[in-house]
Amino acid sequence: MNDISCHVLVVGAGLAGFTAAVRASEHGSKVLLIDKSRGELGEGNVLMASGSLRAGGKNPKTGAKELYDFVMSEGVGYPDLVKAWSENCGRAIGWLQTVGVEIEETEPGRIWLNQKSAISYGPVYKKDVGSRALATLKKRFEQLGGRCLNGIDAISLIREDGRICGIAGKKQDEGIELRSRTTILSTGGFSANREMLRQYVGPYADQCKLRGSKSCTGDGLRMALAVGAKAVNLKYFYGHLLSRKALIDDRFWPYPRLDSFVDEAILIDHVGNRFVDEGRGDVAVANELARSDDPTGAALMFDYASWDAAKDDVFSQSVKTPAPNPWLLDNDGDIFNDETIEGLARKIGVDAASLAKTVEEYNRAVQSGNPSSLDVPRTGKPKPLHPPYYGLKVVPGITFTMGGVLVNGRCEALNLDEKPIAGLYAAGDTIGGLMGGYQGGYTGGLMQAIVTGILAGENAARRNI
Asked: Residue 56, by phi and psi: left (phi above 0), alpha (psi -120 to 50) or beta?
């Protein structure tokens, strides 16, 4: 068995992992960063990201109290972690610039990883903003004396004398022990683990489309649970509704997104009935559908006004992704239209009488200004549906899971009594306690990775002084 030792061991070479590794190195620690992939930059979600650096839908430089209140309003955040995240979002942006990661600011107050990017539209939409950011962080890490090893599968955490002191793993078929004074788990979530999706998100959630990286198989969560860590908010994920065609055609994920339709549409089941408050937004609706008994059997119904407006989708224009209109029609994206409700019902395969009743009751409630009176109350700013009608068969697309190992404001992994597990830290999508909730609870995947990576790296390094 091979033995390698270091001060700080970082498990997972994504944005959180590289950030933690650089920050620990800047504090003088001898750092080893490992990843299970064979790629030089890992295979995490950042390589598929648009590059938007948002903090709870706000500019990361927003005041800490405003950010804190926004996240805590969802009711599932853990105060110590949310406070630390809120107070460090602005600092994180400044730190990225000091290590050479290029960012740009656009109006109104949007911050992005530099968007000068090569774009591929097939078979899957890709930009290289994430890979350039990681390459910059890796270069800085190696300048500081850090070491990267890929192709290592982390199997279990090593615990001796009541503290975590590294991992037992495997490189090809050979066992390996990596010893460290402190260990940071930054392995991503469990969005690519079908069994965990069924266990934590919903009994049929494995039928959803994986909208993120195939490498997010819950390794960090599995290892942390085995040493008594507490996990929270496991039923929530960040994602969007996609055309159901995405299940068989890679051109339909991760884009086009359908947010603008959800705001003005109704989501109907295979019978033709509404079952969710669409006003909660696309992320919350995708979560609700994923937890249902039929994640692939729903359809969005909207009208021509919504379809026509999708040509001017602001997100698609700013991030240079395909707009829903005309992409969905041009590429046979499971979208149908008809002048009558009965005709649309036949085309999307639902009961015409049920759908007609659903639309009639919905329009009546909206026109009377009382959408909360519906059996499934509707919030937001709904509009009545008018012919011609459109129906789009949809499926939830899961980008990353929001729940995971509970950490405190120093990113120390906590046990079932919410006390620190000596020597163990977590960052990025491996953690829980920041995101999730009834309204979606998305605070920004890249900002979660960067801020918790900074905090984990700093605090893990300080334990070695």
From this structure: left
